[in-house]
């Protein structure tokens, strides 16, 4: 699904990622934790093809981001929920979700919409409401739902807990565990908070100064009990 070998990325004169190795298997939930400025956003944007890298190899669902356009990588099955959610504030909840399904047939769109609204009943209740009037937690649900509308095989999320209360963060992570298990989607999540993730993710990795520290293996039963 995702294979990174010796990745190095510069932003201007600053070395952000250095000789980074990472793999994510089908249906796996991998969390990358690290402080602000550790390189988490840079890593996810590089995987999506939004940022170039100067050394190393990246393979995303058979595509090299250095040679494929971001939309081609997305169509191959990569979903990306950016930091700050970035919903379309002036559009309704329903229209935001529909934007994520542009490559689906009418029947696929209908079926996927039903699954998303079943996962997030609050979005069903707010279907006609403008996204900009939603609470932070509701906007995060919408951002995740919009990404799921494209039926991704890998879902990446950048700081989904940003600005959310702990209880809402926990519920969001539990929803992601449900997506992993019931939608058969691999998840790569970048976060600063660590305690909740060690209960839910299959593996947690520490990103520090542009390098990944030795991984922590989390027993499958621990994640399953949290869902």
From TrEMBL:
One of its GO terms (molecular function) is ATP binding. It holds the Pfam family ABC_tran. The keyword ATP-binding applies. The keyword Ligase does not apply. Residues 2-227 form the ABC transporter domain. Keywords: Amino-acid transport, ATP-binding, Nucleotide-binding, Transport. Belongs to the ABC transporter superfamily. This is ABC transporter ATP-binding protein. It comes from Streptomyces rugosispiralis.
């Amino acid at each position: 699904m995702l294979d990174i070998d010796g990745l190095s990325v510069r932003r201007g004169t600053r070395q952000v990622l250095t000789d980074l190795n990472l793999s994510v298997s089908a249906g796996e939930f991998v969390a990358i934790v690290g402080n602000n400025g550790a390189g988490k956003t840079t890593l996810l944007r590089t995987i999506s093809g939004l940022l170039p890298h100067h050394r190393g190899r990246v393979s995303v669902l058979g595509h090299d981001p250095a040679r494929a356009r971001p939309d081609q990588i997305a169509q191959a099955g990569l979903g990306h929920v950016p930091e700050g959610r970035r919903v379309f504030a002036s559009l309704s909840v329903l229209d935001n979700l529909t934007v994520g399904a542009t490559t689906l047939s009418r029947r696929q769109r209908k079926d996927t919409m039903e699954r998303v609204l079943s996962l997030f009943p609050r979005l069903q209740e707010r279907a006609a409401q403008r996204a900009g009037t939603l609470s932070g937690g509701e906007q995060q649900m919408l951002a995740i739902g919009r990404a799921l509308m494209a039926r991704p095989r890998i879902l990446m999320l950048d700081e989904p807990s940003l600005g959310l209360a702990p209880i809402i963060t926990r519920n969001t992570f539990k929803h992601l565990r449900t997506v992993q298990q019931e939608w058969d989607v691999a998840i790569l999540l970048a976060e600063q908070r660590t305690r909740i993730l060690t209960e839910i993710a299959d593996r947690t990795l520490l990103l520090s100064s542009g390098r990944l520290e030795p991984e922590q293996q989390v027993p499958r039963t621990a994640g399953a009990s949290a869902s």
